[in-house]
Every structure is written in structure tokens, then in C-alpha cells.
Amino acid sequence: MLTRAVSFHARHRYPDAPAHGHLYRVEVSVTGPLGTDTQMIIDLGMFDVIVAEIVGPLDGTVLNDAIPDFANGAELPTCEALARWIRGRVAVALPDGVRTHRVRVAEDDTLWADCLG
Questions:
Q1: DSSP state letters, 81-98
Q2: Sheet arrangement for strand 99-108
Q3: Is the CB of residue 101 less than 8 Å from the CB of residue 115?
Q4: How far apart are CA 58 and CA 69, in angstroms?
Q5: What is the pLDDT of residues 54-85, one digit of tens each?
Q6: Over residues 22-39, mean pLDDT
Q7: Fold of 2-116
Q8: Taking Cα atoms as reference points, which of 59, 67, 63 lies closest to residue 88?
Q9: Domain locations in the chain as residue ranges
């Protein structure tokens, strides 16, 4: 298993509560066979690009407005929902044979959610 961790600042709001922000930490873990030539699960440069293209645009946003499922009210911008959203996008961007193992989204050192698979 290989994990890349990144951070971003964003705000979110819940019904009947004021908007507030966090320095989110996202950990994306992938698994798969080691490449015969590289002895790596995935090229690290490729992995970094995949994670950056998904998580990077969230930096400095209000999550309620930045993610369509949150903007249309289908879901609240919880850690759980954000982990599922990131996991879904990472999963389809990975090369053949590599799959997501876990996406963890933490609002701070005491609260996080994991999306497995």
C-alpha cells in the first residue's frame, strides 16, 4: 500500500450554522501489484498529479459551492461525504491494476473519516 498526504484550506456550512473553515488533511492510499521494472505500485509523479488535480481545486473554496453534490443540496459537506467524493474521482483516474485502498479526510487532529475500497 502507498499513501500520499496533502492539505488544503476550505470552508463549509451546515443548515442553521455559520460557515467555518478547516485545514483539511487528505490521505489517499492505493494498492496493487509492484511493477516488474519499477518495483512500485504506481509512478509517484503520476500519483501526485492525480491527487493534486482532484484535491488542489478545493483549496480556498467553500465546499458547499465547489462540489456539485454539495451545491445542489444532495449531500452535506461532511468529512464522510468529502472522502467518498475524493475516492470516487481517484478510483477512475488510476491506471489499470491500481485501486484505492482508503481515502481519509481529517478536519483536524481529532476528527476524520475514512472511505475504504
A1: HHHHHHHHHHHHHSPTT-
A2: 61-62, 2-12, 20-31, 99-108, 111-116
A3: no
A4: 14
A5: 999 999 999 999 999 899 888 999 999 999 99
A6: 96
A7: Tetrahydropterin Synthase; Chain A (3.30.479)
A8: 67
A9: 2-116
